[in-house]
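[worker-b] picked up task from shared queue
[worker-b] task type: protein-ligand structure
[worker-b] ligand name resolved to pyridoxal-5'-phosphate; SMILES cross-checked against name lookup, match
[worker-b] sequence length check passed
[worker-b] input payload:
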Amino acid sequence: MIPFLDLKAQYDQIKPEIDAAVARVVSSGHFVLGPEVRAFEGRFAEYCRTSHCLAVNSGTSALHLALLAAGIGLGDEVITVSMTFVATTAAILYSGAKPVFVDVDPVTWTMDPDLIEAAVTPRTKAILPVHLHGLMAEMDPIMSIARRHGLVVIEDAAQAHGAEYRGRRAGSIGDLGCFSFYPGKNLGAFGEGGAVVTDRPELARRVSLLRDWGQETKYNHIIAGYNYRMDEIQSAILNVKLDYIESWTESRRSLAERYNGLLSELAFACPQPPRHSRHVYHVYSVRLQRRDDALTLLRDAGIGAGIHYPIPVHLQKAYAELGYTAGDLPVTENLANEFLSLPIYPELLPDRAAAVVSTLRDAGALLPTEAASNRAQHSQSFITRSCNRRAS
Ligand SMILES: *Cc1c(COP(=O)(O)O)cnc(C)c1O
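[worker-b] inference finished, payload out:
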C-alpha cells in the first residue's frame, strides 16, 4: 500500500509542537483573527517576499476577495485557464465577472502567454494564471501583456507555496497572489484556510476590510463585506508548519528528480520545469496515452494515483452556461485525458517512489506500447522531451 497522500505521517513528525500550539489557542480563549493570525500573516508575507498578507478562511475566499479588492465585478472579463481546480472559475463568477479561458502551454501545462492577447476585449479587467501542480506560469510575458493593456494580474498560487520564477516567489509578481491551506496543500492547515498576499497597501486594506464584514472598527461597517476570517487554531498550526515548509519542499523536489530518472527509462512524458523556475511539486503528473489502464493497474497494486484534473472546467456540467464545447481548448483537453498523478509528499520514502515505477514497468502489456507512443510523440514538436531533460 502506497497512499496518494499521508497527512498522519506529517502530524506524527511534529505532534508535540502542534499539540502545544492548539492547546495554547484553546486556553487563550481567542479564536478568530487574533495574535496567531497576525503572527502568521507577518511570517507568510516574509516567506512570499511581499509586504502584506491577509489570512482568510479558504483559497477560494482568497481568490474572491482579491478580485473584489481589485475592483472586478459585473460585466468584467477575467482571462484564466480551464486546467485547474474549479475554485479558480467559481471565484471569478462569485465576483460577478465572466471567466474567459485560454489554453495552456503543452510543455509547462500553465497559461500559454501567446494566446492571451487574442482573448483581450474592452471588457477584460484581469488575468488570473494558475501555478498548476506547483510550477509557476510564465509570469514575465503575462505581466508585460497586462501592463500593456492596463489589466490586473492575480496569481492563483494555491498549489505553489514557495515556488519561484526567475528568483521571485509565487504570489509576489502579480498585483495580488492567492494561497490555499487546505490540508492536502504543500502548507496545509487542519481544516480550511487561505491567504492573499500583495505589495500594494490599498489592496491589502480592501482585502482586510472585506474578509471581516467591512468593519473599520467594531460595528462600524464602511463597506459591505464577508465573514471570511481565519481561525486562530489554523494559524497556530500554520505557524508551526511554516518552519518546515522549505525542507518539505526540498523532499518533494528530490522525489520528483528520482521519478524523472526512473521514468526516463520508460520514455514517459514527465514535468519539465524551465530552468528559471523552482517547481514545488504539489502534484507530480506524467502524461501517457493509456492513462486509464495505468491508473487501474496502480490502484490494483495498492498505489494511490490520481488525475489533476480529469474534466477541465470548461467541460464541467456546472459551467456549461459559459458556452464552451469539446475542442475549444485542445491542449487542456488532451492533458485531461493523459495526466496521471503519482504519490508525492515529503514523508514518502524514495524506495516507495521506485516501487511505484516498477509497478508501471511490470505492466508489460501496457508499457511497450506506451514507450513507443511517447517516442512517437517526442518526434512531434508539440510534445515533451524525455524525463531527465528540462525545458530551456
Ligand atoms: C485548492 C485550490 C483552490 C481552492 O482552495 P480552497 O482552500 O480549497 O478553497 C483554488 N485554486 C487551486 C488551483 C487549488 O488547487
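[worker-b] attaching auto-annotations
[worker-b] The chain has a mean pLDDT of 93.
[worker-b] releasing lock
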